[in-house]
């Protein structure tokens, strides 16, 4: 009789143990399945966002190559039109009329591309930087950038502003693109990264930088 009770107690305990193990395994399965499902969804979402970022980059790459070229070293777009201001000048009229027409067409092409990208990708912002440059000059055994760097900053900024106002006065106003296109006018003075180190006269010009700010796209769920 005592042996029978011990046997019954063993099987009851064994049954409870198996039941407990079953529920533990069930919980682990549910947790594991949920984690894997979340990770799979996250991976799929990242893949879609990466595809969107690549699509945006391809759109930027489609800028008219008659007006723009990509600076591989500095990873930025530059106006291909050979424009030069007169020395110490910020007057847009220094530039020949045919070159000014090319610059205007470049602005129209850039505006059109940005407008289409904004309409297609409402969660992506863009940064447009118009950067003026200034030529380094050597007088009396000393470089101008060493003695009066602020002059270069002011002059290069005025050149960037001259381009912005020229575009705006001809109907190409990037501010109309709204908050999704931030426009920055910059003067790099004698120290811009896109400088022509072989021919200083080529630095009496400006550089156009256009990049996508994908923060909202990356942060979106």
Automatic annotation (TrEMBL):
The membrane spanning regions, by residue number, are 17-36
The domain of life is Bacteria
Check the record and name the SUPFAM superfamilies matching this protein: OmpA-like
List the InterPro entries hit by this protein, alphabetically: OmpA-like_sf (IPR036737)
Q: Which UniProt keywords apply?
A: Membrane, Transmembrane, Transmembrane helix
Instruction: Supply the name of the protein.
Output: Outer membrane protein OmpA
Classification lineage? Bacteria, Pseudomonadati, Bacteroidota, Flavobacteriia, Flavobacteriales
